[in-house]
Every structure is written in structure tokens, then in C-alpha cells.
Amino acid sequence: MPDVTGGNALRAQEQMDGTQVRFEDATGKDREVVDPQAWRVCGSTPGANRQITSYPVVLLVVPGTESCPDGASG
Predict the structure, then answer these.
(1) What is the 3-state secondary structure (H, E, C) of 14-50?
(2) Using CB atoms within 10 A as the burial measure, which of 6, 58, 59, 65 is most buried?
(3) pLDDT of 72 above 80
């Protein structure tokens, strides 16, 4: 898994090159990610530099204007 933390969610998805990706609101507010270009990656499952063993890969994201919640980096 590449380290996409802190990056743009759309670019992170493109970097995954065909890997199944799901976006989740890192704040727990369960907001739908309609435009990944406007969101930033706070973390992922699996974590950075870990082997992908299950799909979809989960990108924990927040809108670009918000900070990542405590416990998440980015």
C-alpha cells in the first residue's frame, strides 16, 4: 500500500491503479464522498507500506477544508 496520507483523495485513488477503493469519512459523520478531488486522505486500511491482502482498500478522508481527527494523520 503506498503512503497516500495527506494527499488528495482522487489522486490517491488514481495511484492505486485499478485496485478497488472505498472512501470513508474519517470523522465518523458518514458523509458521502461525491467529489474525491475535494477530499484529503487522513489514513488507510491497510496502513502505509503494508501489503494489501483484502479488498476494497479503505481511504479515510475529510473535506480539504477540515483537519484530520485526533488519532489520524494527514
Answers:
(1) HHCCCCCEEEEECCCCCCCCCCHHHEEEEEEECCCCC
(2) 59
(3) no
CA distance between the termini of the chain: 16
pLDDT score, position 71: 63
| 68 dihedral zone (left: phi>0; alpha: psi -120 to 50; beta) | beta
- Whole-prediction pTM value? 0.89
Q: How far, in Å, CA of 63 to CA of 60, rounded?
A: 11
- Cα separation of 5 and 40, whole Å? 8
pLDDT of residue 17: 87
- The DSSP call for residue 11 is H
Prior bond of 56 cis (ω within 30°): yes
